[in-house]
Design goal:
This protein is of the alpha/beta class. The chain contains 22 helices and 27 strands. The strands form seven sheets. An eight-stranded parallel β-barrel has the order 3-4-5-8-9-10-11-12, surrounded by seven helices. Strands 15-14-13-16-27 form a five-stranded parallel sheet. Strands 18-25-19-20-21 form a five-stranded parallel sheet. Strand 3, helix 1 and strand 4 form a beta-alpha-beta unit. InterPro entries: Aldolase_TIM, FAD/NAD-bd_sf, FAD/NAD-binding_dom, NADH:flavin_oxidoreductase, OxRdtase_FMN_N.
């Protein structure tokens, strides 16, 4: 990982690329100053090469109407703010050139053919041959301007289903001119763009092509076409080839937490046997041992990590110092990064709220250190304790249970969410490193705090499950999700889950999957229909494996409508697909009556029904745990409430951790 990579005209200091991420700062007023701080911190943290978020070469290629493009000399200045910051810190940076094609969220979109994308509301216009040629020139012009702005190179986005990918694949290219029909014609635009870019920037400039090596859609590229295009790109003057996996419209997860680590490095390894230029592996690479395995085994020459460098800008330096336990690991949740991006919000990170807020959220030494008591070692309490101690405050963290983590201890039990345990490992390290006094198995009372002589109290006691007061619900066969996930109660073979929010979906996954496919890559590939032998177009199996349900499960929702609408924008579809796989029956508009030996009595759309269940798991929301509040208010000390104790809406670790960080910055 730490070995330099010689490119002939320049040398990269190590094998780690910070992959392209659009933060939203690109469009904010003063955003390029913030973007410079964001990138600079990652350079100081040791990354070898940075690739920016996608910048369009022209107006029609923008992802959104207000998205950034680089087409004119007057736009160069703001980019120099970024490149200067990176170079002053000793780093290198490439600008990604991305034309959205039919993925654009505006009515001016264009594409190879007039075919609407399933994930955007607008139907694109088919590009004329003249527009295609102008777009090729626009890529070259943007690359020249990027060079003028001080970038060390460009990455041409040719994957994930964007414009160039749309030309390359027959599923989206129905043209009959020189840019359609056979593969030579369909791939012509990609080669022409690389040649035009190389002509405009000269030889001593990094040109990366992000090649879709595995489309994961019907009528995607064949393996032979991927190899042929890679060889032609090499001849056209590409410096590096980056791995692209899956179109955005593909119904196969590629980066979510349930995807096995390094699940797609095999395809990079397969192509590495066909070309001589360096290849970059991508997707779900989040710890040093994963990187070392990929590089040492010869699967790739470099690795690209995007979200892991949101989570921890010092990733490379910590790896170099053999401090893996200190790394704030990306858990692949998407909640604060991609979910924000697709809602046109600034991207950040659930486990690192400073990401993209480097100029706004900082923890300078406190002028007057205080003695602080934190009640509850869940996400909010842990985050506050670490950041406050970092500022020099003397912090004692009280936890009634035997371990830190709160709701994270429940989340890590869900098959496919094993990564959540990494966050707990990180916080254990940080609490010890910053000398937070951790008092486990210690229920807090006002008397205890009075004896402790604290200056201020932070209540981070989290939530308690909401109870339903219905006939028969005092039965031992009616249990809470916390009892189930903590192993305090068991579920039978036929289970009704009351509540279809995120917790309900997690419980259905927990009960439906005996052994996590995330930890069994071969099973995971079969489940999602991925052909690792690459015999089929797009890398898809002709048939997916059938799995027998572990239990008979019902997921019930009081309100009408499709369950799961409030789930994450980029991951909700995966959770819904898993329920279908596990044979879960979902019911909406349910009124709950009572539970007895026959089962759970309900009314659905005015009709009475009995579900023949032996267990009911209640996931009907939660309430703030404010049992201690009256006693704490009597202490007469400044009192702050954060996390679930402050707001018990749908469990939100992102908000809880940010709550803790923002209070720690102010206190």
């Amino acid at each position: 990982m730490l070995e330099p990579l010689e490119l002939g005209f320049t040398c990269l200091k190590n094998r780690v690329v910070m992959g392209s991420m659009h933060t939203g700062l690109e469009e904010e007023k003063g955003g390029f100053d913030k973007l410079a701080a964001f990138y600079r911190e990652r350079v100081v943290g040791g990354v070898g090469l940075i690739v920016t978020g996608g910048i369009s070469p022209n107006f029609r290629g923008r992802l959104t109407p207000n998205a950034t493009q680089l087409s004119f000399s007057w736009q160069v200045g703001k980019h120099r703010i970024v490149t200067r910051a990176v170079h002053d810190a000793g780093g290198k940076i490439c600008m990604q050139l991305l034309h959205a094609g039919r993925y654009a969220y505006h009515p001016f979109s264009v594409a190879p053919s007039k075919l609407k994308s399933p994930i955007t509301p607008f139907t694109p216009r088919a590009m004329s041959a003249r527009q295609v040629r102008k777009t090729i020139r626009d890529f070259g012009n943007s690359a020249r301007l990027a060079q003028k702005a001080g970038y060390d190179g460009v990455e041409i986005m040719g994957s994930e289903g964007y414009l160039l990918n749309q030309f390359i694949c027959s599923r989206t290219n129905q043209r009959t001119d020189e840019y359609g029909g056979n593969f030579d014609n369909r791939s012509r635009i990609a080669i022409d763009i690389v040649e035009e870019v190389r002509r405009r920037v000269g030889r001593d400039f990094i040109v990366i092509f992000r090649l879709s090596m595995l489309d994961l859609v019907d009528d995607g590229s064949s393996w032979e076409e991927v190899v042929l295009l890679a060889k032609r790109l090499e001849m056209a003057g590409v410096t590096l080839i980056n791995t692209g996996i899956g179109w955005h419209e593909a119904r196969i997860p590629t980066i979510a937490t349930s995807v096995p680590r390094a699940a797609f490095s095999w395809v990079t390894a397969k192509l590495r046997q066909e070309v001589t230029i360096p290849l970059i592996a991508t997707n779900r690479i989040n710890m040093p041992e994963v990187i070392e395995q990929i590089l040492a085994s010869g699967q790739a020459d470099m690795v690209s990590m995007a979200r892991p460098l949101l989570a921890d800008p010092e990733f490379v330096n910590k790896a170099a110092a053999m401090q893996d336990e200190a790394i704030n690991t990306c858990i692949g949740c998407n909640q604060a990064c991609l979910d924000h991006t697709f809602k046109l919000q600034r991207a950040t990170c659930l486990v690192n709220p400073r990401a993209a807020y480097e100029k706004e959220l900082n923890f300078v030494k406190a002028y007057t250190p205080k003695k602080l008591a934190v009640i509850g070692a869940g996400p909010a309490g842990m985050a506050f304790a670490v950041y406050a101690a970092q500022r020099g405050h003397q912090v004692t963290l009280f936890e009634a249970r035997s371990d830190i983590g709160g709701q994270f201890n429940l989340a890590k039990e869900i098959p496919g969410k094993e990564e959540f345990s990494e966050t707990l490992r990180y916080f254990r390290y940080q609490l010890a490193h910053w000398q937070v006094e951790l008092r486990l198995n210690t229920p807090v009372s006002a008397e205890l705090l009075a004896a402790h002589e604290v200056d201020e109290v932070i209540l981070a006691s989290g939530v308690v499950p909401r109870q339903l007061q219905l006939p028969g619900f005092d039965s031992p066969h009616v249990i809470s999700y916390q009892q189930l996930l903590r192993g305090e109660a068991q579920a039978g073979a036929n289970v009704a889950i009351i509540g279809a929010g995120g917790i309900g979906f997690d419980v259905a996954q927990f009960l439906g999957e005996a052994h996590s496919a995330t930890l069994q890559p071969a099973k995971w590939y079969q489940r999602w229909g991925i052909d690792t032998t690459y015999q089929q177009r797009g890398g898809l199996l002709a048939e997916t494996a059938k799995e027998l349900p572990q239990r008979q499960l019902w997921l019930l929702q009081r309100k009408p409508g499709t369950p799961g609408k409030t789930l994450g924008k980029t991951t909700g579809w995966i959770h819904r697909a898993m329920l279908k796989l596990h044979g879960v029956e979902t019911l909406s508009g349910v009124s709950y009556q009572h539970f007895d030996d026959e089962g759970l009595h309900i009314v659905v759309e005015g009709k009475a029904r009995v579900l023949p269940v032996d267990t009911v798991v209640v996931c009907a929301g939660q309430e703030s745990n404010l049992t201690l509040l009256p006693a704490l208010q009597q202490l007469g000390k400044p009192l702050h409430i954060i996390g679930g104790a402050k707001l018990a809406a749908e469990l939100d670790a992102k908000r809880a951790i940010r709550d803790g960080a923002e209070l720690a910055m102010r206190i």
